[in-house]
UniProtKB/TrEMBL annotation:
The chain crosses the membrane at residues 9-31, 43-65. This is DUF378 domain-containing protein. Pfam families: DUF378 (PF04070). Keywords: Membrane, Transmembrane, Transmembrane helix. It comes from the Bacteria.
Amino acid sequence: MLINTSNNLLITTIHLLSSIGAINWGLVGLFNFNLVTLLFGSFPIIVTIFYIIIGFCGVYSFLYLGKIFCKPGIKNVK
């Protein structure tokens, strides 16, 4: 099996938020429609915090790719 399917709530949440961020950027690029600004536009500090959290989730997801695509039983990924 190529993908390590661990059921960790934190990892699942991080990947979910990264996916939401990617979908939002797709909407911005295709239709100039920002869902986050639509939902939280009247609270700019919440929009900023949300983008920071999404950014951290994206970086963590990128760094976590090495662990996802390793063979089962491999503990150390360089």
